[in-house]
Structure formats: C-alpha cells, structure tokens
Design goal:
Elements: H1 7-13, E1 25-29, E2 32-35, E3 40-43, H2 46-49, H3 58-68, H4 81-93, E4 98-102, H5 105-124, E5 130-134, H6 143-148, H7 152-155, E6 165-168, H8 173-179, E7 184-189, E8 192-193, E9 199-200, H9 203-216, E10 219-223, H10 237-241, E11 247-250, E12 261-265, H11 267-270, H12 286-299, H13 302-326, E13 329-335, E14 338-343, H14 351-360, E15 363-364, E16 366-367, E17 372-375, H15 383-405
Parallel strand pairs: 3-15, 5-6, 5-7, 7-10, 10-11
Antiparallel strand pairs: 1-2, 2-3, 4-12, 8-9, 11-12, 13-14, 14-17, 16-17
Helix pairs in contact: 3-12, 4-12, 13-15
C-alpha cells in the first residue's frame, strides 16, 4: 500500500497522547533532517538523547542490514552471538558482571526495581520493601516506574499506585537521610535529572546516597537512561562522579535509535534473578544487539568522549553569548551534550513556545518541563552543524524576546 500521509492524519488515527510538531521528517543525515516539503532542520533534540551518532550513520546501517540478512528473532529460549558480544562489551567497560537486556529505559528501570525488591525479600525478609526516589524524577511510564518518578502529573490519573515509594528532595542529603532506613530496599536516582529540568546531582549528594545504602543494605540504582553511553563525556555518568551504583539502567543512546535497554549489575545482586523470575520476548534480540554493539564500539573511545566535552564548550560559550544579548535565561546548566537553558521568571512556562519558534527557524530542540529549553544532540555533531543550529537559536531567542516585549 503506497499511501500519502499528512500531519493531520495523526489527529485522525493516533491515540492523542502526543502533540507532535506540525511537520513530518522523512529523511536524515548526520544532524540534519528534512521534512515532507524539503525544509531542512538542524537536530539538537537527538530523538530525546537517543540518536547518539546522528541519523543514518553508515556503520549503524551496515550493522543492522548485515544482521537483518542473517536472522531477526528467536525469543529467549535461545541465545545469539550479538547479545553475548554486547554483554561482554558492557561488562568490560563498566562495573557490571551481569547484564539483562530489554527494549526501553522504562523496562530497564522496572527490572531494576523488581530486582531490588526480590534481593531484599530473599536476603532480609518481606518487610524490607521501601523504595526511595526523588521529586521531579522521571523513570518511565510503566505503573511502577511512573510511581517512582516524582512528578504527580504523570502518575495521579492512574491510582492506586504501587505502595511504599517515598520521594525525597533531589540534591538534599538531609531529606534523603530522613527517608532511608533499614526497611528501604532501594534508592533510585538520576545522576542528572533530565525531564526534571537538566539538574546535575552534586558529588556529595551521590556519595551520601552510596553511604546510606551501604549502611542500610539498600540497593543503589542509577537511572542512566538519559546520561549513559557518552552523553556526559564519560561512557556513564557514574564514572564522572566516582560513585559506583549496585544497579544501572541504560537505554536511549545504547541503540542509537534502535530500541534497546539494559540493566547492569554485579553477581551479588543478579544471583537472585533465577530462571523464570523476569523476562521479555524481544529483549536481547540480534537486530538490536548488533546495532548497539556497533554504537558502543564507536562511542567508547577517547576521541568521541573527549569530543563530547569539546562540544559542550562550543554550546555553552555560544549560549552564554546569546544570553548576554537577549537576557532570556537565568542559568545554562548540564554536562556534556545534555544542556538546559533555564528561563527567567518573567518567561516562565514558555519553553514549548520557544521550541515551536525554533522549528519555524529550522531547528529542533527539546524542553525539560515548562521552563527549560533542552539540547541533547548527536555526540558527533559537527562544528558547522553546531554553529548553524546556534545561529538559528539566536534568531529564535531574539524574535521571542521581541514578541514578548511588544
């Protein structure tokens, strides 16, 4: 069936849980996309920190098509070569000794929370089931993970929610200390809150969580779905902080656009997840793992990781200069190529409007809540693409400020 489609068809045919942009991208190359009308966009959104190597990267295309010509899927009654090679890559590159593969960040976090509960129940008894998470967190859209996420707007319509989940204040050691006790089975935290506004944790905060979890025999889970696979300039953000979790969730950039997620942990914690305790039909399929193996090989190099730090400097220096002219932002924060521009109070709630103006000017950006414009471009975005995109962002900011003051 060769059928022409328009943006209006989305409203006719799709469940209305998204409000996508008014254009439909049809082709991408590097950090550029073109829509149905042939208009070009610079992509600073990166598929929400997913497209770590940009669009249609030849090495990824080759990995996918080579595996597609062999076989696609067998289910978890069998293993395959790509999944075993990818597991070994992750083990060699991180603290992990065991890996579980799934299809998304939410699934990875769901598995992490289930593992923590089972470990606590097996080792200490059913009373040890409390979970401490943080306000303004985001861990996924399953009922368990949306409950752990500290944003009621995402969870309140789906009550009753899973019990015994409490939320401390992010970056507040005293708040966490007040909730973590001997009945706590897990603490789940993002090293940088992405959806919550691109807010980095302080090193002292993450170190305190490590010490509290050790004291109370709780599992420390780092949600690195957004910060992982080179996004901060290290392969995983925990390496930058020097604080090692017990369990780490990863997804997004791991597949560079092909859906895949993973849970990383040690033998100590993995041992409680025996045959039949958890599973997934598609997780660890050879297509996803072949692509992810190629992505990981390309990103986990000094050249790419140091390049992320260089690109951070390109962005922040230019964004600071733009802000000096337009006076739009209170703060420019983040690490590597996860950057948030925080709107001044007089422009509160306008991040979405700015992202829409940017699209009109040929630039794709993200938001992180109503008050933060977020950038999460490809880790290998070129200097020319950065400069062109920031030229368009400067134009966007100037027109927004002019409109706001008129």
């Amino acid at each position: 069936m060769n059928q022409s489609v328009t943006r209006g068809n989305f409203d006719d045919w799709m469940m209305p849980v998204y409000a996508p942009a008014p254009f439909i991208p049809v082709r991408g190359e590097g950090s550029r996309l073109w829509d149905q009308q042939g208009k070009e966009y610079i992509d600073f959104a990166g598929g929400i920190a997913v497209n770590a190597l940009g669009h249609a990267h030849p090495a990824m295309v080759r990995a996918l098509t080579e595996q597609a010509g062999k076989f696609w899927h067998t289910g978890n009654g069998y293993t395959n070569e790509p999944v075993l090679k990818l597991a070994k890559q992750l083990i060699d590159a991180t603290f992990a000794e065991k890996v579980f593969f799934c299809n998304s960040g939410a699934e990875a976090n769901e598995a992490a929370l289930k593992l923590a509960r089972k470990y606590a129940h097996d080792k200490f008894g059913a009373q040890k089931s409390g979970i401490v998470a943080f306000k303004n967190a985001f861990h996924g859209r399953t009922l368990f993970t949306v409950s752990a996420g500290g944003q009621p707007s995402y969870s309140q319509d789906f009550a009753p929610l899973p019990p015994q989940i409490q939320h401390a204040v992010y970056n507040d050691i005293a708040s966490a200390h007040a909730l973590i006790n001997d009945d706590t089975c897990a603490v789940i935290v993002e090293p940088i809150q992405g959806e919550g506004g691109v807010v980095p944790a302080t090193p002292a905060f993450l170190q305190a969580l490590r010490e509290l979890c050790d004291k109370h025999n709780a599992v420390l889970i780092f949600d690195e779905v957004q910060t992982g696979v080179g996004r901060t300039g290290e392969l995983y953000a925990y390496m930058r902080y020097g604080v090692t979790p017990d369990v780490l969730s990863t997804a997004k950039a791991l597949g560079g656009g092909f859906p895949i997620g993973a849970l990383l942990t040690t033998e100590k914690f993995a041992s409680v997840m025996t045959v039949g305790t958890h599973g997934t039909t598609y997780g660890g399929n050879p297509l996803a793992c072949a692509v992810a193996g190629e992505v990981l090989s390309m990103i986990n190099t000094h050249e790419v990781l140091n390049g992320v730090k260089q690109r951070h400097q390109w962005f922040t220096e230019r964004l600071t200069a733009i802000n000096a002219k337009v006076g739009l932002f209170d703060d420019i924060r983040g690490m590597g190529l996860l950057i948030g521009c925080v709107l001044k109070a007089e422009h509160a709630g306008k991040a979405k409007h700015i992202s829409q103006l940017a699209a009109e000017n040929g630039l794709m950006v993200l938001i992180a809540g109503a008050n933060v414009v977020r950038f999460a471009p490809a880790l290998v975005i070129t200097e020319e693409e950065v400069n062109t995109g920031l030229d368009r962002f400067a134009k966007t900011c100037e027109s927004f400020v002019a409109g706001a003051s008129s």
